[in-house]
Specification:
GO terms for molecular function: catalytic activity, acting on DNA; demethylase activity; dioxygenase activity; hydrolase activity; metal ion binding; oxidoreductase activity, acting on paired donors, with incorporation or reduction of molecular oxygen. The chain is α+β, with helices and mostly antiparallel strands. The chain has three helices and 14 strands. The protein is 16% helix and 42% strand.
């Protein structure tokens, strides 16, 4: 397993994709302000999924914002986007400037504490543009994030810091899984925003 910490502007994957990490994307005070703005201003709802024919509601909360009333299907459920808020549009502009990419949707996750995580998966839904960049902003509690190659099982691990930006690019979703493991000692919430390229921009 490779462990990376506070590495900027270099590919963190050994092959089959591009993973870039910018730890100080947002200054501390700005990250704090955005965190509280989103905590109070986002329409958070428990996530829903259909697994093995069963309807499941998670402890983790989610929200989806996008243009043109998009619908987004994953884990057997369909979600209809809410219109952009001014705070999200401002953050989207910052992410687009840093990544040199354009995004038209944002899926937000609220992990209330370390007892909530995410199992191994790839963001390879057919509604997303193939091999498009996903930009992930982390706010709040620092959490470990892991990648695992689908064939070799080689793993890469990094710490996602408050105010950081992670860019998943190229063919990474085709070849790598990623997960947010549970960390029971962490008692603080974490907000994760993943800016995505839905369909054709």
């Amino acid at each position: 397993m490779h462990l990376f910490q506070r590495t900027e502007s270099e590919n963190l994957l050994p092959y089959d994709g591009v993973l870039l990490y910018i730890p100080n994307f947002l200054p501390t005070e700005e990250a704090k302000d955005i965190y509280f703005s989103l905590m109070d201003g986002i329409v958070w709802k428990p996530d829903e999924a259909i697994l093995y024919g069963k309807h499941i509601t998670t402890k983790r909360s989610v929200a989806w914002y996008a243009e043109k009333g998009f619908s987004y299907r994953y884990s057997g459920t369909t979600k209809t986007a809410l219109p952009w808020s001014p705070a999200l549009l401002e953050l989207k502009t910052k992410v687009e400037f840093a990544s040199k990419e354009k995004f038209n949707s944002c899926l937000l996750n609220l992990y209330h504490d370390g007892s909530e995580g995410m199992a191994w998966h790839s963001d390879d839904e057919t509604s997303l543009r193939p091999n498009s960049t996903i930009a992930s902003v982390s706010l709040g509690a620092e959490r470990i994030f892991r990648f695992k190659h689908k064939k070799s099982n080689e793993q890469v691990e990094l710490h996602l810091e408050n105010g950081s930006l992670l860019l998943m690019k190229d063919v990474i979703q085709r070849h790598w899984l990623h997960s947010l493991p549970k960390a029971m000692k962490i008692k603080r919430p974490r907000i994760n925003l993943t800016f995505r390229q839905f369909g054709i921009i």
